[in-house]
Design brief:
single chain; alpha/beta; Rossmann fold; six-stranded parallel beta sheet; globular
């Protein structure tokens, strides 16, 4: 069994826009920008023995305001640039009531089965309450990258960080030898 770090995508590894308190992902690969220190933090976590995954909700596909092809282009860029095992993506909206849309843990549980992940030694890092709730439901430790839109009152993360580089510094000393 291996430990993993699950990363939300938008707002954790890449820039977003915020309109009326609501975060929005980039609309295209041309708008996509990694946040400072993300590559280095991911490399450090990977060298520290963690499998890395992006676990992202992309409901704009179900809502008809984004295409799955554009989301996949962005995800493929992320996979090329970061030392990831995979990008795990839910394209559903809340109305679908699927098991893969965070705050439900389906993406993380599926990855644990496929890659033999020890969820009790793993972490979920996200910028919204739903990310931390998915991590808790899967049995992971959680880190909230606190933003104005995070809705911290709806969650109880193990740690709070200002960005992924700070979160990686919280995780690396936690690594237990297997």
């Amino acid at each position: 069994m291996k430990p993993a770090v699950f990363l939300d995508r938008d707002g954790v590894i890449n820039e977003i826009s915020v309109s009326n308190g609501v975060p929005h992902p980039p609309n295209s690969i041309e708008e996509f920008r990694f946040l400072p220190g993300v590559r280095e933090a991911c490399e450090a976590l990977n060298k520290g023995g963690y499998l890395l995954f992006v676990a992202t909700n992309q409901p704009d596909v179900a809502r008809g305001t984004q295409t799955q092809e554009r989301v996949e282009e962005i995800n493929q860029l992320v996979e090329r640039e970061l030392p990831l095992a995979a990008v795990l993506c839910c394209y559903h909206d809340n109305a679908k009531q699927c098991d893969c849309r965070k705050p439900k843990p389906g993406l993380l549980l599926g990855a644990a089965r496929r890659w033999a992940i020890d969820l009790s030694e793993s972490f979920m890092i996200g910028d919204r309450w739903s990310d931390t709730q998915a991590g808790i439901a899967a049995g992971c430790r959680t880190i909230l990258i606190e933003r104005d839109y995070s809705q911290r009152d709806k969650c109880n993360p193990d740690w709070i960080a200002q960005d992924l580089p700070e979160a990686s510094k919280l995780i690396l000393p936690q690594r237990r030898t297997m």
